[in-house]
Every structure is written in structure tokens, then in C-alpha cells.
Amino acid sequence: MSLLDAEPRVVTTGVSLFAESLAAQDVDTVAVDWRPPADDPDGTLATALARVAADPRRAAADETAVGRMLAAGAQLIDVRPAREALGLEQGTFLHAGPPITWERASGPLRGALQGALVLEGLADDPDDAERRLAAGGVALDSCHHHRTVGPMAGVVSPSMWMLELADPVGGGRAWCSLNEGLGKVLRYGAYGPEVIDRLRWMGAVLGPLLQHAVRTLRDGAGPVDVKAIIAQMLQMGDEGHNRNRAGTLMLLRELLAPMIDAPGHATGAAAGLGQSDVARAVQFVAGNDHFFLNLVMPACKLMTDAARDVPGSTVVVAMARNGTDFGIQVSGTGSRWFTGPANTPEGLYLGDYGPQDANPDIGDSAITETAGIGGFAMAAAPAIVRFVGGDVSFALATTRRMYEITRAENPAFAIPVLEFRGAATGIDVTAVVRTGILPQINTGMAGRVAGVGQVGAGLVTPPAEVFPAAVRALAELAPPPEGPPGPV
Amino acid sequence: MSLLDAEPRVVTTGVSLFAESLAAQDVDTVAVDWRPPADDPDGTLATALARVAADPRRAAADETAVGRMLAAGAQLIDVRPAREALGLEQGTFLHAGPPITWERASGPLRGALQGALVLEGLADDPDDAERRLAAGGVALDSCHHHRTVGPMAGVVSPSMWMLELADPVGGGRAWCSLNEGLGKVLRYGAYGPEVIDRLRWMGAVLGPLLQHAVRTLRDGAGPVDVKAIIAQMLQMGDEGHNRNRAGTLMLLRELLAPMIDAPGHATGAAAGLGQSDVARAVQFVAGNDHFFLNLVMPACKLMTDAARDVPGSTVVVAMARNGTDFGIQVSGTGSRWFTGPANTPEGLYLGDYGPQDANPDIGDSAITETAGIGGFAMAAAPAIVRFVGGDVSFALATTRRMYEITRAENPAFAIPVLEFRGAATGIDVTAVVRTGILPQINTGMAGRVAGVGQVGAGLVTPPAEVFPAAVRALAELAPPPEGPPGPV
Known about the structure:
The structure is a homodimer.
Chain A: E1 10-13, H1 17-24, E2 29-32, H2 44-54, H3 58-71, E3 75-81, H4 82-85, E4 92-95, H5 107-119, H6 126-134, E5 139-142, E6 161-166, E7 173-177, H7 193-218, E8 224-225, H8 226-233, H9 245-260, H10 275-286, H11 293-306, E9 316-322, E10 325-330, E11 338-341, E12 346-349, E13 362-363, H12 367-370, H13 385-388, H14 392-402, E14 406-415, E15 421-427, H15 429-435, E16 441-446, E17 454-460, H16 466-477
Parallel strand pairs in A: 1-2, 4-5
Antiparallel strand pairs in A: 3-6, 3-8, 6-7, 9-10, 9-13, 10-11, 12-17, 14-15, 16-17
């Protein structure tokens, strides 16, 4: 039978225009989900990919990196100010994402820095702070350079109280500040008096009470097992990035009894706090569904830090954004950042805000996706689509797609609706380049203008170019290919 | 083309033997999911079904019944002893399921009654209690006859503290006792000293503290909205019968601040309780993932009671088991029970227990399925299969199947993984008989022997015969069919 005797059978791929116009003519088509690989006009990327694929260290290196990532634990062992925990000196401010200067900083990062200067007493008001920052009077550094992760702007200053997590397997430490809640908060770039007042209360009451509770457990029944709570929250509709509701309640459950016990028993910073302070602190935590995000993030930081610095490994160990640049770090390339311009999330907006109000992607919270949860585990949290957009079938398809670009499945983070399949973990930069599938991140959206705060939540991907850059760097570090074997 | 010229195409239905033997011969078959309707040798059931279907009141009656069921609210308005709340007199004991005598009572119900007599000081020990019960010295009645629901044995005695829920829409009230936790507990038929001690502490400390908290909220910020928490828990991996983990934590979140406030402020029964009592009470609630079940059940009782007594309605308003009999009540047939022998659940067993240790189905908790959650909403709680057996695809298929025997979908109880489809609500006895699909219940399993306690959790259905019995009763109450219209 010749081709022209029968009805044509059409297979389509790439952009949907061809398929759509055939569908309009009532022709059946079969769509193949294939994307063109990254831009490679001179063929050097293909050469780099081949070089990395041929690296004899690679299989073992990735196995080591991912093995360490999966094995890492996360226990909450202390709560104390950044000046103590990180040795952070007055006049130094940490921020989310790869390093950046004030000149290139986005609105929300600028706003958060202005607020932090006021909080530290280094400026009289936000305008004064802006002048001092523009004059270069303070030191800025990336949270990630201090084993710290910060959501959104991620600004950390010496007086802020930090959650301190330890990995009992690999021995690592990681830190994150206390979550302020939603809306007008410093991490979204707001800096009004209510923001500063809340941060002062967190330093005077909430931090000390949490310190008492966390130390009581650590020195008694045992520290809070954050990894175990993350495992549970994935059974309870949370994905650990934009849904942390069950996680927050489970954390609160652990901390309740020693918090209630504090009045009359606590020493140190919490001495003298009373029953009404406890009630307010408990209500603050209980009323903030995102409180546990600031424990998920350092838990994921412990996992990904454990996978760092394995020569030859192609596994991503950090994805982070400062509101201007999106950066990744890869196990086999050490502390080098591969950066590109941050994309702007698309999703759902609060109140009257719209796409024009949203800042490009910001925050260290993509550490959750780097560790296999957040956007990668949306199938565990179908209700997330009411917050970040999309529908439930998108959430399920996204989680399934992420297995194509990762090296492992995490049995500790099981996704019930996928018959308890482990979360897709350990992004492989070569798989991203080969498949054209980008890691899926879900995220809060900050207002573009300093002082505004949160405007929505949505979905975003890294800029595609960071992955080929990492592949090229890995290729340069790979041992030279062996020539053909000579005569014996 | 004649039938014999081509390969046979085989459609199979009913038992799978035929399909399996064809499959063994490599013949493709298409299986149709059809079950024979209920046993009807003399055709009278078909006549009854036709009579009910022709009842001109029926469509409006079901709409009214289901409309009331969906509209009912549930607020937690008080916590107080059964003697006050229900006017229960010393010597009277309520139990789960349809009415039953001591002689026909199963092991777990007997054990719970023995413990309750000891708790009330009406017997010196469980043996003494058994003699007194056998001698007929106490009055037994069904919880359902007192707007009360009790999990498992469901025994309520005058000194037990009750959760009191109100429906602000229909004005109903419903009660349930406080959940004791899992393992060796009265409701599973255990009656040892630790069971009685725990119940005494619940009466002296937990009940009064909850009363203080519930009344503080009721008279201040507003009562706890139990229906809203149920809606949320379905987004958080709970189905409200055997998973109540998120629900319990959300309830605790509401009650925390006024519980913490109690020392020095509470009056009445909670006066004089201190900080350590609060810490123990909070830990007791937080450490018992099933605590919220005892609020879900009366909330469902409010929903189903609102749908009672609509003449012509075929909607089930109660499913309840006493460990011997399984009974249903139907809106159009008033307070009449249709009963059959309770089936024994199949599922997963604790420790060394096995099927031989399990008592037949027991408890009023099937009120959750009657109201559209529990086994009907397992798709919202895929992790439940690790507790009751089955796999995730079974959980999803079960929820989908329940839409075939129900009259409505509850928009307030949305199931995220089904793209937020409302829970299948309002079991129609005629649909059960026509399709042969029985309501799916998941449940705890009590030990057969009094005193043992819980032995597992599993899946069970009502005995099929209760539904034809209800259809026949509805047919008897239907108006006589009209003859053909006469000449004008």
C-alpha cells in the first residue's frame, strides 16, 4: 500500500501551530513531547556534553553526591541571634541568591535592606537607609556563603534570630531566619513601622521562647526531627515550598509543651516572659502557615550541602535568586555560580495586583526544589494550584516530568498519590540540557517596588542558559579523553 | 462478513472465571463492571423499586433531604459531662449502633460496658460489672436515640465529658465523648486500670480545660467552626474517619491560646488547674491523631440529622454498628432501623493480631461515610491505605465509585486530586440496590474478646440485605400508583 493511498497519519512535535491547524481541518495528530536541545550553533555544547558523559568519574561521583543528599538528616538544635550563630558583624547584611551589589539590586531586596538598617539602628528611617546603602557604607554577602538560606529577599542582619539545624549524618550545619508571616513583611521588601515592630517583638519574645523550647527538647527528649516532619507533610498536602500548613502545625505540636513550660522556668533571654507572651507566640506560629518553610529550607540546605564538591558530579547543589540574577551551583564545580537573568513568575495575584507589579524571581527558597520537594513534589499537594496557579493534572504531570532530569528518588520523601514513589531528587545539568526540561519552581511573588510586599504566588523556571554554562564548565574540568588504545 | 469469519470479540461480566480462562487461551476480552442486582426470586423487590421510583414525592424529597444535609453547619459550642449535656441518669449507658441487649452484645461492647460501670462506681471491678450487667441491672440505649454518636463500642455514661456541637443553619445539636487515643482504650473494649485512670483524668483535667477554652471562644471570638476544619483536612490528606491528623492539629491551633490562658483565669471545673495540667492536656490532644474524629462524627450527625424525616426520601441518614448488627436509617422511613449481621473488616493488623482476633464491624463512626467523607473520600487521603489496606488506585477508584450511589456532591468538601470535585454525599438506597455497589466504609478493628482493645484497621461494607429491606419499606409508604386517567 503506497503512502498516498491511505489517510495520512501525522506525528507532531515542538511548537503546537502545525498540530492546531491540522486539528482545525479535522486531521488526527499524535503529539510527541519533545523539545529542541539548548541553542548550540557551533556544536561546542554537544562536544561538552559528550565530554562530560565520557568522564569516567561521573557515575560514581553522582552516586556519591546523591547518596549524601538522600542520607543527610536535619535536626533543629538551637535558635539564637545571627551575631552569635553566624558571627555576623554589625554593618554586614546577607541576602538571598548569588552575590550582588546595591546598584544592581531589585526593589524588594533594596526595601528589605533599608528595613534591616533601620532595625539595626544604622539608619534613622528608610530614606536615610537608602542614602547609606547607595553610599556603600555596608557590606553585602550571599546567604549561601554562610551556610544560610533566606526566603525572598533573604536579608539577615546581626540582631535577627536564626533557626539552627544540624545534619547528624554528615555533620553539617545550616541556618535560616524566623518567618514573619505573609503580606507586609521584610522578606518581600516591605519596611514600614509595623514590619520593624514585628521584627523587634520576634527578637524580644518569639526568638527567646523558641530558644527555650528548642534547647529543652535538644537537651531532654531529643531535638525536633525536621526531616521526619517533611516526610509527614508530604502525606498531608504540603509540598514544602508554598504549602507548609501541616508542617507548621506538626512543628508547633513538638514545641508546645516546652513553650508552655517557659514562664517561671526559662532562663537566659526568655527569663521573665509570661503566660500572655506564650499565648501570643503560639498564636503567631499557629497563625502563619509558612512558619515551617524556614525550617524546610535549611533542612534542604543540609541535604544539598552534603552533596557539594564531588569532582565530576553533574548534580545541582543550589538554585538561588536575588531578584535580578538566578544562579545555580553544581557539585563538580565547587562554589562557582552560573547565573542568568531571573525570570518573572506567572501565577495568581493578591487583591488588585497584576503581572506589571511582580518582581523577577527572588529568594533562596528554590533550595526546596534543589532537594526534590517544592515544585518537584506538587503531586503531593494538589491544593497548591489554588495558590500558585495551574490545575491538578498540571501538578501531577510536573512531578512526573521532574524524574526525567533527576538522578534519584528519595524514599524518605514518598508521594502518596504516585503510589508512594520517592520525590525526584538531584537535578542533573546534563539531563536538563539534553531534554530541554527545566526544573519547575513554585514561588511567592514580591512587588517590584521597594516597600510594597507580596503581590502574589506563581510558577517559574530558571533561565535556560545557566545549565549549558555549567555543562561547559564541567567539561573543562573533565580529564582529557583517552586516545585509542595503542598496540600491546 | 459472518460472525464466524472473524476473530471472536468477547465481552465478559460478573465473576471473572470466564475472562480468566479465555485470557489463558490468549483471547482478548473486554470486562464490563456490572454486578447482578440484589437477590429477588419472587420479583417483589423489582416491584418495590418501581413503586419507589414512581413515588411523585421522591425527587423533591431527596432534594430537600440532601439540600439540608449539605447546608448544615457544625460549631463546637460546649464541653460538659453527659449527665448535664444529655440528662443521662446514673445507671443508663449509651452504646454505638442500633439497640441491642447484653445477651447479644459482642466482646468489645461488653468490655466497654464493664469498664464504664467501674468508672461510674457501680461495680467494684470488671468481673463484678459483668455479673451486674448479666443480671440486667442497668439500662442500655442507642447513642443515636440521644443525638449522640460514639466511635467503636461508643459507650457513654453520665460522668463522661461530651463535645457539644450545634448546627447554626438547622438548629440541631449533636454530642460525642472525648477521644481517648489508640490501643488499650474503653471504646475498643479494654477496661484495665490504665483505661479507667485515663478516663478519670479526662474528667478532672482535660474536659474542664477544654470547656474553658471552648466557652472562651464561643463567648468571644466565636465558636470553633468544625465544618470549616473538615473542609481543610480534606486538602491535607485526612478523610475524617481513620485519618484525622491534620484535623486534630487544626483544632488544637484554635483551642491553644484559651487553654494556655486558663491557669489563674478559668472559673468553674477548670479553676485551680495549673501550667503543668495545660501542658499535659495539650500534649494529650497533640499526641492523639484521632482526637478530631470525635468532632467529625457529631458534625456528620448534624448533617445527617438535618436530612431526617422527609416523606418519600430514599436517602440514608444513619449507618451504625453495635458489633453484632449493622443498622441503617433512611430519611423517608423515620426512626426505623433496617439491620443485618455486621461484616468483619479486612485490613491490616497490629502486632501479632490476625483475622481470627477481629470483632465484626462496630461503632457509630460510619456516620462519616453517611455524610460523604471517610471511606467515601479516600481519594483525598491516599496515605490512608498504609493504615486500612488497599493501594492508592483502590482509594481513588472507591471515591469515584461512590458517586454512583449518592444523590449529590458536596462543594464544601472538595477533593483536590479529583480537580476539587465535591464529596459523594447522600446514599440513595435504591441506587445501592440497582447497582449492587455497597457503601465503602473504612474502620478500626476491635478485638473479639472483651478487654483486648484495638487489633487493626481495615475496610468493610454493610450487609447487603439492609438496603432491599429499606426499599420495601419505602414502597409500602409510597402513595398507591394512579390508575390510567379516566374519561373526562
